[in-house]
Design a protein that fits this description.
Order of helices and strands: EHHEHEHEHEHH
Catalytic activity: dihydroxyacetone phosphate = methylglyoxal + phosphate
Radius of gyration: 14 Å
Number of strands: 5
CATH class: Alpha Beta
Helix content: 40-55%
CATH superfamily: Methylglyoxal synthase-like domain
CATH architecture: 3-Layer(aba) Sandwich
Number of helices: 7
Function: Catalyzes the formation of methylglyoxal from dihydroxyacetone phosphate.
Keywords: Lyase
EC number: 4.2.3.3
InterPro entries: Methylgl_synth (IPR004363), Methylglyoxal_synth_AS (IPR018148), MGS-like_dom (IPR011607), MGS-like_dom_sf (IPR036914)
Distance between the termini: 29 Å
Shape: globular
CATH topology: Rossmann fold
Length: 139
Amino acid sequence: MNIAFIAHDRKKEEIVNFAIAYEHVFEGNNLYSTGTTGQRIMDNTKLNIHRFLSGPLGGDQQIGALIAQNQMDLVIFLRDPLMAQPHEPDITALLRLCDVHGIPVATNVASAEIMARALDRGDLSWRELVELHRPRLDK
């Protein structure tokens, strides 16, 4: 499974703690992240993460490209809803791509925990369901 981690600055400690708590669930998957978030997770776990650029420098868009190419299965994006982000259009575009392509996205620890627990149980067989009901975009 291809999983992306993204976190705004004030959420980085939260995503690191989350990755530590669910390290056993994420190991063995293909992990991706924006630059600083990925480095912080790797510094505190044994997880190997492919790091893209920092979010404001285009990392969000690089992950979005994988989503658009149907190469991402799950996105954990801990957003800071109380702080304006200079790259807000990129964030909105990433969330839109998740919606268009039916990719589960967690934007807070509560939803991320639900997804991690489902992944741990092997309950994330949503792809088959999405493909059955996905509108054809090439028509």
